Protein 1
Amino acid sequence: MSGWGMRSGRVPPAFVLLAAVVALGGFWVARVSAPDEVSLLPYNDAQIEAAELMRRCTEVIRDHRLRLGLPIDRELDPNETGLIGDEFTDITTSVGNLEAKRTATNPAFAALMVRYFEEAGLRPGDVIAVGASGSFPALIIATLSAARALDLEPITIYSIGASMYGATLPDFTFVDMLALLNQERVLPYALAAVSLGGDRDAGEGTLFVDGKRVMEEIARRAGVQVIREDTVEGSIRRRLEVYGALAAGRPIRCFVNLGGATPNYGNTLSSLEFPNGLVMRPPIMSAAPDRGLIFEFSAAGVPVINLLDVRGLALRHGLPVDPVPLPPIGEGRVYETAGYSPAAAAVALILGCAVLCMGAVVGASRGR
């Protein structure tokens, strides 16, 4: 302001406050005056491709499950996706929410993952680390479908234990689902490693006494390295080593946490405060040795996508909760950016600047 012959720092606070009110009011008017004006996101084609791929994966999994003689209970899975497991099996580790499991089967979650990856600034060829439990097989498929659509390179470590209604069928866990998708040439990715999951990531704390033995059998069947450490800290460290080795010197550009496996989500109270969705910079940080990979990667400046509160994610992005039937691909807020009135926004900007100028004039006159 000094260039205009006025001394800086003399704008009365009342004018600054008024300018802020005008700006906020203008933003509100600009938004509500164009409620129906939305436009597709610039990466809409990739969103559609990812959602279509997730739907194709679901069809393949459903058909194979039925061929295996593993029926689909329409009371649990009214859309017959095949991605909803039984409530209690040998590998059920914890309580799960059926509504959340069914909500996650919407292929729009693959479109949401494309949106997150784009907002994180990822580019084709970038390496991403994926840490998943068996609680949300649909979200793993959504993530890998989005990675495929954007030509990313995921490194996935899978914990076999699952909460209720997840990948709880011992004869058809996500280990088997991904192998099937490879065999059918639908998804080209393989698991990097598996762990047992459950308490301490050691197959403990399952609801049935035979749980750990069944998990061990599944781990052997996976045909990849098995992470077995005595402590959660050891599991975290080993996962970092696996990610680093497979990245082969390339930087890991994003970490995706799917579910609540302890080495990924952490074992601290701070984990409960870690936001859902894309987190570029967490509002909190933990220094605990068992803080989990969400904090380990955040501390290194790597964006984290945390998918745990599925209902909250759906509401935030305009996705239906527990939809029957599943909505058509390409429809919904997750594919769009909100519209606004450029004229209203311009008027608000001019008025805000005018208020500040008036304040500067008044302040300068008082200082003489």
Protein 2
Amino acid sequence: MSENKIIACKTHEVAPGQQKIVQLDRFSVGVFNVDGEFHALLNVCPHKGAALCEGPVCGTTAATDGRDFTYCKDKALVRCAWHGWEFDIKSGEFLVDPSIKAKTFAVSVEGEDVVVHL
């Protein structure tokens, strides 16, 4: 992990399934709580540069063996508000093409502090 560690917020400030956008040095960063684990994404959509982390936290649908679809990854994706591109919060991968990724940062929790490693 990077030695450039910055306290982004307190753990209680980001409830499960929610995000908080913070300014860290010159970066706007979204801090997300996915099932009690904290993750950080650069607040820039790699598609057209929109404020990615301002989009809704959501899930998506996946095909089943039959004709049905099932809802999955609830509260583990962020959807860009401009064009609807969906990214996995943990990996930064674009769902349609995993070779396209939103920038992620390593995160650690130190006591009650959520620390982002730039």
Protein 3
Amino acid sequence: MADQPTAIERFIQGILPENPVYRQLLGLCPTLAVTNGMKPALTMAVSVAFVLVCANVVISLIRNLLKPHLRIVVFTLTIATFVTVADRVLAAYLFQMSKTLGPYIPLIIVNCLIICRCEVCASKQNPFTAAADGLGQALGFGLALASIAAVREILGTGMLMGFRVLPALWPDWVIMVLPPGAFITLGLLLGLVNYIDFKREEARK
């Protein structure tokens, strides 16, 4: 389709202009649940990237066979297949991380971000563009999770991925690694992103 974004446009849009978390507010359940540490956040980001890219490519390959009234069912079954692969690989090779993430890996099946990309891009464009779209959105999702996890882990424990980054005298803000810390951090970072966006728009006028 001539009016559809190109592969490079899809890739770039997913990172910042259409960031899944900060601009589209998609995939907020794992965003809030697994960002109390950088390691689980990155593991979730990689898992979502694998599922998103694979699902986008498969849906794009079969897009001409999709029936409108069955497309959501096909999307869900395709996503579930790759989520099962990711879940079993984690359980086999990263068992403790699999236990830490608990139900949030299987819940990728109902992640609205992936279903959204299947509907918006993969069901309409070629596999190369669909893969680029998946990579861009996955990178944007990973950056959002990493930024939230970094703030929460540093302020909550004074450490990042096992290394101390704040002085030992730092009084750990335990609330930051608890569920309220996820809402506080996401709210503050969302406000910061919107403020920067507002200032950029003002500068253009």
Protein 4
Amino acid sequence: MDHLSAAFSALADPTRRAIIARLAENEATVNEIAEPFDISLPAISRHLKVLENAGLISRGRDAQWRPCKLEPQALKGIDDWLEFYRHFWDQRFDKMGAYLARIQKQKKKKGKS
């Protein structure tokens, strides 16, 4: 599976997106990440493994702790992919805005005559 597909697949799960949001604030241990969730630590570890395999997070080693941190470069790849479609939609909205302005101008002309 390519990197972008792995990233989107990992982010398809709302728990994993919440973990990413948590790690965007700062590094955290598995226990800290698990606190707000009503699921087991092994389940959190499985989510972390998916995120790690997708390159979205990494785990360090600090004594007995393995803090997790966000890998922003992986998110940059997603943003780059989305940027193309953001530009696509901006162009479409600009064309629709121009069309609506033209229609309003035509209505005003008809109203005056």
